[in-house]
Amino acid sequence: MAHGANGDPLISKEILVLTQIPKRGSDRPQNVVVRGLPPMGVSLRPQVRIIDGRMFRPGTSEVIVGKSISQGFEGVSIGEKQRFAGREWTVVGTFDAAAPDSTPSCGATWSR
Hints:
112 residues; mainly beta; 2 helices; 42% strand
């Protein structure tokens, strides 16, 4: 567990959403996990770096997608939109991460 400068644990309340997106070269959608991140969740993942576009802005309907999702699925290029979790989301960036097993396929902002 990560701790702040004062020793308190750094905690990120996150939401996982399962959506379906068509794979490139196929008309069959496949499951893709989207992780809703508050600002703390982003800061706890220093291995995530934006390689194209930009990071999503907190409180907006914006999403970033992993490099493998960007290369392997339809409709997830920068500027394109996906519908999940009851609303439409705009892809604003592509990311890569040093530890892909611990990083979501897609990341989105959320606020409560």
